[in-house]
Amino acid sequence: MSENNIPTPHISAKRGDFAQTVIMPGDPQRSEFIAKTYLTDAKLVNNVRGIGGYTGLYKGKRVSVMASGMGQPSMGIYSYELFNFYDVDSIIRVGTCGSISKDLHARDMIIALGACTNGNYASQYRLPGTFCPTADFDLVQKAVCECERLKLRYKVGTVLSSDTFYDDSGSALEWAKMNVLGVEMEAAALYCNAARAGKRALCICTVSDSFIYPEENTTSEERLGAFTKMMEVALEIA
Ligand code: HPA
Question: Quick one: which H or E segment has residue 71?
């Protein structure tokens, strides 16, 4: 740990304020919801820019939850600081995605084994080829076991971490030709930071909208129910 970097430019928490595992939704309101619904003794450890970070107990186990904000630059900053300056070992992103697979419907879950991207986050590493941002196998395996136990509908596969939500080229479905399951905006940067720091990461997404079945798109209230299931999976494996 590099204590000299604490507090960081974006996190005001003190050394030891975060648990080894941090659950990361994109939205700060979801972070607060998770802390208040599932954690006992939850304490606010960060609120810089309204990025609520909480640490508490889930079934007696110490766990933190903090928002990532939207997009790879934002996820890149928070996951970098947690892994490299706060001694966090694992980050589990819990988010929503748009499905581009015929086999997935609204409220189904994707366990993101790998994250393709149209962004250039990994270019900073100056590798002599194309890096493959990948989840931690142990976390993937645990998430699969938990989905089976809870009898949830899920698929394991790749997602696209897109730098654009409103994409002028309308190219998201091109990725379906490569068997990519869904589109979100953060996993690739998270997986890059985990790899570079020698830490562990996983992204689990609930399908909030489908490029294939647009009539199934969920309202924010409907999403909350499905989101709750995904939270339970993340907290159980934390
Ligand atoms: N694109 C990117 N991110 C998303 C989407 C999408 O269609 N749906 C939910 N998150």
Answer: none
pLDDT per position as a tens digit, 94-108: 999 999 999 999 999
Which residue of the set 27, 87, 163, 209 is catalytic? 209
pLDDT above 70 (res 3) = no
Q: pTM for this structure? A: 0.96
Domain-by-domain residue ranges, the chain?
3-237
Q: Among 74, 107, 89, 81, which Cα is nearest to 22's?
A: 89
Q: Tokens 């879950």 — which residue?
A: 109
Pocket lining: 96 vs ligand 1, CB cutoff 6 Å: yes
Judge if the beta carbon of residue 209 lies within 6 A of ligand 1.
yes
CATH superfamily to which 3-237 belongs: Nucleoside phosphorylase domain (3.40.50.1580)
What pLDDT is stored for residue 222 in this prediction? Answer: 77
